[in-house]
Each structure stands twice: as structure tokens, then as C-alpha cells.
């Protein structure tokens, strides 16, 4: 999306110069790079295998898969749908601030002097077209996040370089202030609780060995991490199902377990970032509910799990930001409730910035709840 104009202008310059060698090198470089990427992706995604000197499987064309995935509206609906102008009016100023203003001024100056220009810089034109094509093509995809426009930083800086010398002093002060604010917003508080919350879940839900107390009754077990030289008096498997709602997906590498793991405590994680409230309620209703009374008495770093029909023990955790009203997911007439096990602040979800600004203390946390049965 961003490289297409640069490549076309490169072809135009080479054609004007009648450099057939240059055209051949450009085409050969593109073809070889494409082949290398396809091979690397096919190996990485394990769609191709090399066994006894023979190749089997199918090639992975990541770029094509990307287009096919983003062409399906139902796929994008799971991540969130935005209007076509979101990148232009929201993402662009949020990411680049004063640089976006400078780029618009550069575009206006270019339009006013178009007919009288005889010294067009191919570099500036290519950079401007690169930024414009990326913005336009990405705006055609209904799921839009500011980070998708990060590649625009280079073409925007290049196409506005002449304006940098004449920009007033206050522009650079505004530039520094903007970057300081963005650093705090995106670097320190935006979705900041995801890693700590995932760490908490990992420390209490993915464990090789457990020591458990079965005296809690009602088919419950309260377990904690055991030293490697301590074995449980009975074989016990505890599964924690984690539902992440309205938040960045927890990085799965922090919850990984060995292949064919026999760890006594294991995790399963489900991404519900853009799932409708009713669907989330349905998933929670069908999950295993521990006793609310016992959950309130159990230490946060312990695992309170309930025995299932299959014989293993299970519990359900819900991870969601406090910027959302918990009653959306746990209505008053629900057959289940929640007990908070962990929270981290500051955690700001920019999708709910209105609620955050109204109640900056209560609505800037990421919480981990245990789903429980209030009658248990």
C-alpha cells in the first residue's frame, strides 16, 4: 500500500532513462524478494515441510491471505468496525500531530503552485503519493487502528522537509509537547495492565506441580504452586479458562506450556475483544462457576477450582477494563457473579475515553475476576 507509488515512480524514471539494466534489476529484485518472503512464511507457519530431502505441503502467501481476511466483513467485525474517515480524522492527528498539520500545509502549497511548478522533486512526490496511497487504501478497510498508519512517518517527514526550515519556533515546542503527551499516553497508560494481568494469570494458572487442599467441600479444591520435590497425594489437573473482553489480547507466550504438557495447572485463553455482550454472557453462563463464598475467602495467588463431570478441576477468569460497567456482562438477574482477584492501574482503554475522563480513578484499571456461583 505504501510502496506501490515509489515502485511506479522508480519504473517511470528508469523508463525515461531507457535503463533496461535498471528495469531488469528492479524486476529481479522484486521477484527474488517475493520468493524469499513466501518461502520464509511457509516455513514459519509450517505449511511446508522438508522430510528426507523432499518438500511437501502448500506455500503460504501472506499478502494474499491478508487481503482475503480483510475483505471479509465478518472477520473484521470481531476486531471492531470504524467509519471510512476514521484514519483521516482520528488516526492521523493522534499519531503525528503537528507533522500531520505540516503535511496538509505542504499539500495545499503543492496544489496552489501545481501549474507553475517546473522543478518537481520526484522524491517529494513519491513520498507524498506513498503517504496518500497508504492512507486511502487502509481507509477502505472498515477496521482501523492508529498503528496501521505508522509507516507514514517516513514519507510524511520526507515530503515536508523543505517546510522544516521555515517552521516557526512555536511549532517545534508544540512538536515536543505533542510527543511527550503521546509518549505518556501510549507508552505508559494505554492498555498498560495487559502484561501485568497476564503475568498474574500465568503465575497462578500455569504450574507444573500443585499442592491442594480438598477440605473446602462442594467438590472444590484450593491449590498453590508446589516445590519440585513435593508431589500431590493424588493426580490432579486444574484448567483455567481465561476470557479477555474489551481489552488487548493477552500475549499467549506468557502462558505457554510444554507440548503434551502434564503440568497439573494449565490455561486456555479466549479472545472476546469485540464480542457482543449477550454472547459474552452466554459464554460465562456455560462456564464452570466456583463458590462465591469460597472465592472471597481464598487468597488471590491460590487457585480455587471446582470438579467437573470429567473429573478434572476447572475455574473461569474474566479479564476486562474497569472503564466498562461490569453489569453489562454480569446483569442483576444473572445466575453467576464475580469476585475480583487482581487489578492493575493505570490502564486506559482509549475506546472508552469518555468514561475514563468522567471517572479517571475508578475507570483506569484492568481487572481479573473469578466467575462464581452466588448460591454456592
Please tag this protein with its features.
alpha/beta; 43% helix; 14 helices; two-stranded antiparallel sheet; 376 residues; 11 strands; single chain; globular; 18% strand
For the biggest sheet, the summary is: 9 strands, mixed
Radius of gyration: 27 Å
Task: Look at the helices and sheets and give the structural class.
Answer: alpha/beta
Count of beta strands: 11
Number of helices: 14
Q: pLDDT under 50 segments (min length 5)?
A: none
What would you call the shape?
Answer: globular
Secondary structure topology:
Elements lengths: L3 H13 L3 H25 L3 E4 L2 E4 L4 H9 L2 H5 L8 H11 L1 H15 L9 H18 L13 H7 L1 H4 L4 H21 L4 H12 L4 E4 L6 E6 L12 E8 L19 E8 L4 H9 L4 E2 H6 L5 E5 L5 E9 L15 E8 L8 H6 L7 E8 L3
Parallel strand pairs: 5-6, 5-9, 7-11
Antiparallel strand pairs: 1-2, 3-4, 4-8, 8-9, 9-11, 10-11
Helix pairs in contact: 1-7, 5-6, 7-8
Amino acid at each position: 500500500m505504501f510502496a506501490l507509488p515509489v515502485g511506479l515512480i522508480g519504473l517511470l524514471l528508469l523508463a525515461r532513462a531507457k535503463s533496461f539494466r535498471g528495469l531488469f534489476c528492479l524486476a529481479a529484485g522484486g521477484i527474488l524478494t517475493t520468493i524469499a518472503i513466501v518461502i520464509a512464511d511457509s516455513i514459519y507457519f509450517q505449511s511446508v515441510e522438508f522430510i528426507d530431502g523432499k518438500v511437501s505441503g502448500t506455500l503460504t502467501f501472506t499478502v494474499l491471505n491478508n487481503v482475503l481476511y480483510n475483505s471479509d466483513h465478518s472477520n473484521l467485525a470481531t476486531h471492531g468496525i470504524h467509519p471510512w474517515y476514521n484514519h483521516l480524522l482520528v488516526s492521523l492527528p493522534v499519531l503525528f500531530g503537528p507533522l500531520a498539520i505540516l503535511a496538509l500545509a505542504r499539500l495545499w502549497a503543492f496544489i496552489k503552485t501545481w501549474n507553475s511548478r517546473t522543478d518537481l522533486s520526484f522524491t517529494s512526490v513519491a513520498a507524498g503519493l506513498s503517504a496518500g496511497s497508504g492512507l486511502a487504501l487502509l481507509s477502505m478497510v472498515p477496521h482501523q487502528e492508529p498503528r496501521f498508519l505508522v509507516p507514514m512517518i517516513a514519507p510524511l517527514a520526507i515530503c515536508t522537509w523543505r517546510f522544516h526550515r521555515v517552521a516557526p519556533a512555536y511549532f517545534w515546542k508544540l512538536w515536543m509537547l505533542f510527543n511527550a503527551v503521546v509518549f505518556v499516553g501510549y507508552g505508559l497508560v494505554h492498555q498498560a495492565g495487559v502484561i501485568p494481568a497476564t503475568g498474574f494469570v500465568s503465575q497462578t494458572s500455569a504450574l507444573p506441580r500443585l499442592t491442594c487442599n480438598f477440605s473446602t467441600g462442594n467438590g472444590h479444591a484450593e491449590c498453590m504452586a508446589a516445590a519440585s520435590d513435593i508431589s500431590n497425594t493424588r493426580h490432579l489437573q486444574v484448567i483455567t479458562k481465561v476470557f479477555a473482553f474489551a481489552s488487548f489480547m493477552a500475549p499467549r507466550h506468557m502462558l505457554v506450556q510444554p507440548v503434551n504438557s502434564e503440568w497439573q495447572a494449565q490455561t486456555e485463553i479466549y479472545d472476546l475483544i469485540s464480542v457482543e455482550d449477550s454472547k459474552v454472557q452466554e459464554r460465562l453462563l456455560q462456564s464452570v462457576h466456583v463458590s462465591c463464598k469460597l472465592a472471597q475467602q481464598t487468597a488471590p495467588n491460590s487457585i480455587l477450582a471446582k470438579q467437573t463431570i470429567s473429573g478434572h478441576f476447572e475455574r473461569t477468569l474474566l479479564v476486562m477494563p474497569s472503564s466498562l460497567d461490569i453489569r453489562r456482562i454480569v446483569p442483576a438477574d444473572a445466575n453467576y457473579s464475580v469476585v475480583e482477584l487482581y487489578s492493575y492501574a493505570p490502564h486506559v482503554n482509549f475506546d472508552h475515553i469518555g468514561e475514563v475522563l468522567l471517572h479517571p480513578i475508578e475507570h483506569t484499571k484492568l481487572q481479573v475476576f473469578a466467575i462464581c456461583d452466588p448460591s454456592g
